[in-house]
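Severity: low
Component: inverse-folding endpoint
Summary: output formatting inconsistent between runs
Steps to reproduce: submit the following structure tokens with default settings.
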């Protein structure tokens, strides 16, 4: 949207005036700007609510902190160097403020944007994705602190009593939020009965506090969004945070925030970037800032024994920029402002194709060991990836695990993966690993459902014995969610993947589809059976995923009731990152050794479980 309004700004003055007059009349600009600024406040508030700083600091370790700080230093110094060149066109901005602001703009990593990119690239649940998320969060926190300092000295060329008062007032506000606002919200949570929604009065008071926080920090001398962001950080995860996100997110992200970017795009005058020298400076800023971030991150990655290409990938991911950090202060002239917007757009646009080219986890799937049921040691741990769509899948899968009869010598390690369809919401971006040991409550409806599923499996773990359960949640589009399943099985070295059937039994005994997207996953799992004994039988099958015999037993015309378990062994033949899946009796398997341009991938067995009581 910002790019579109930038294009309007770059056309001829006469045409631009006519377009703007018909699309956004002058009398509406003030109203739109007001709504856009309100949307920005509530967006930063939501970002703060969704962040869990304490949890990240405890779990990320020293590696993420060092990567975040080191990856920020070099681009910050590059921004400081270019600030002396670009400051010539913005003389009315204080040099100290301009230096800090430009350094932060080039070194910051936009956490919300990075989370979405990682989800689309299927990297959030990988080691590099976890490091990138933790580093981006810490980087974002450092950037906001520096921006607060820049605003404190914005009115003064050098440090003075006024600057000290602004810093002191901002610190006092943060302390007030931590030691007064947060305990007050926790008190409200404790007084709310378990299972009951938070009262409407409390929600309205908390949402009103966003505007009050923005007003307080603006009166202190810091930008209003800083107050909203800190206010969101102190809101604890729980029923209040869940209710706020559910009710506010769609309205803010779908209506108010696009208005903010549209207004910001109107302020971006690309035609102000004139002359070869200015464009050369723009290109140099993009190249040096990107190279600085990648170099700083790569050096630390090599120090922590992270592979070379993964270090470059991590540096590319941390190059993700958000326009909020650039637009929010708006202390720049038109020329510098347009330059920084273009820098942010270009640097962010090269992240996804660059990471896709450099980092392909599928390339690492070499056949060093076959992980199948047949090759599992009888006295060793049996690792299983259990996929769950809804809580209705839980009882039957638990029955299957019980029937496996784990023993002390041969225990079962079950990795429970809750499959959630990616909806495009900001709060549904992360692939989160849950554990009841941390005691973290649900933050939204999806996590509440995941907690319900995981609680059932953990109760089974406590009662059954010799079964360990590790819960995960995969949020992705169903057309590509099989990649998350394979990545988890690859990472945990599982020998079996259990996928539930896409149909559920109704009260009258019939079978109905719970979600048409579920069947796509099962069809992909059963793709490629070429057995001559069953050829042609699938033409009359209602559910070919169960096989010819399984479909017959599961048919509504069959008098008896059965539970059908379909086992399939995967033999992956990778050719330049592509994978062909074949059955054990497939001609592809009988071809012998693969060609020189192909290599076998590790194997897992896959089960499609269709229960009938």
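Observed output (run 2 of 3):
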């Amino acid at each position: 949207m910002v790019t579109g309004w930038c294009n309007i700004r770059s056309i001829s003055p006469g045409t631009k005036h006519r377009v703007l007059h018909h699309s956004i009349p002058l009398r509406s600009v003030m109203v739109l700007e007001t709504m856009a600024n309100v949307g920005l406040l509530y967006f930063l508030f939501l970002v703060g609510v969704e962040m869990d700083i304490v949890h990240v600091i405890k779990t990320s370790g020293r590696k993420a902190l060092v990567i975040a700080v080191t990856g920020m230093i070099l681009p910050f110094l590059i921004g400081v160097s270019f600030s002396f060149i670009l400051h010539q066109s913005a003389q009315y901005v204080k040099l100290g403020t301009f230096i800090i602001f430009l350094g932060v703009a080039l070194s910051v990593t936009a956490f919300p944007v990075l989370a979405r990119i990682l989800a689309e690239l299927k990297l959030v649940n990988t080691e590099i994705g976890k490091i990138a998320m933790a580093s981006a969060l810490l980087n974002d926190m450092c950037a906001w602190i520096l921006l607060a300092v820049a605003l404190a000295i914005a009115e003064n060329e050098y440090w003075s009593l006024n600057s000290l008062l602004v810093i002191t007032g901002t610190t006092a506000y943060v302390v007030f939020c931590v030691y007064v606002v947060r305990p007050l919200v926790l008190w409200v949570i404790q007084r709310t009965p378990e299972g009951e929604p938070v009262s409407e009065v409390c929600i309205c008071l908390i949402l009103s506090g966003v505007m009050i926080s923005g007003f307080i920090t603006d009166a202190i001398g810091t930008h209003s969004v800083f107050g909203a962001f800190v206010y969101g950080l102190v809101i604890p995860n729980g029923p209040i945070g869940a209710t706020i996100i559910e009710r506010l997110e769609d309205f803010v992200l779908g209506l108010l925030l696009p208005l903010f970017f549209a207004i910001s795009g109107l302020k971006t005058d690309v035609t102000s970037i004139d002359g070869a020298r200015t464009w050369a400076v723009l290109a140099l800023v993009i190249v040096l800032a990107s190279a600085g971030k990648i170099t700083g991150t790569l050096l630390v990655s090599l120090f922590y024994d992270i592979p070379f290409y993964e270090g470059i990938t991590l540096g590319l991911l941390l190059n993700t920029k958000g326009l909020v950090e650039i637009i929010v202060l708006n202390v720049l002239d038109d020329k510098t402002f347009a330059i920084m917007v273009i820098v942010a757009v270009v640097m962010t646009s090269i992240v996804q194709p660059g990471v896709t080219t450099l980092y392909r986890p599928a390339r690492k799937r070499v056949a060093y060991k076959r992980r199948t049921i047949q090759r599992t040691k009888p006295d060793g741990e049996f690792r299983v990836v259990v996929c769950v769509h809804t809580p209705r899948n839980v009882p039957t899968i638990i029955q299957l695990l019980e029937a496996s009869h784990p023993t002390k010598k041969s225990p079962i390690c079950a990795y429970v993966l809750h499959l959630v369809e990616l909806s495009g919401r900001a709060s549904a971006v992360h692939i989160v690993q849950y554990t009841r040991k941390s005691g973290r409550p649900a933050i939204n409806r999806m996590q509440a459902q995941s907690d319900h599923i995981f609680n059932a499996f953990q109760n089974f773990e406590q009662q059954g014995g010799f079964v360990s359960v590790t819960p995960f949640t995969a949020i992705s589009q169903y057309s590509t969610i099989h990649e998350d399943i394979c990545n988890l099985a690859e990472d945990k070295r599982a020998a079996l993947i259990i996928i539930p059937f896409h149909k559920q039994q109704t009260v009258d005994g019939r079978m109905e589809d719970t979600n048409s997207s579920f069947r796509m996953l099962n069809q992909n799992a059963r793709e490629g059976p070429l057995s001559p004994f069953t050829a042609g039988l699938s033409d009359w099958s209602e559910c070919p995923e169960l096989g010819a015999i399984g479909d017959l037993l599961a048919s509504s015309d069959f008098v008896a009731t059965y539970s059908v378990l379909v086992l399939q062994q995967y033999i992956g033949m990778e050719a330049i990152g592509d994978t062909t899946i074949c059955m054990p009796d497939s001609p592809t398997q009988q071809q012998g050794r693969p060609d020189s341009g192909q290599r076998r991938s590790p194997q897992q067995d896959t089960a499609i479980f269709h229960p009938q009581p």
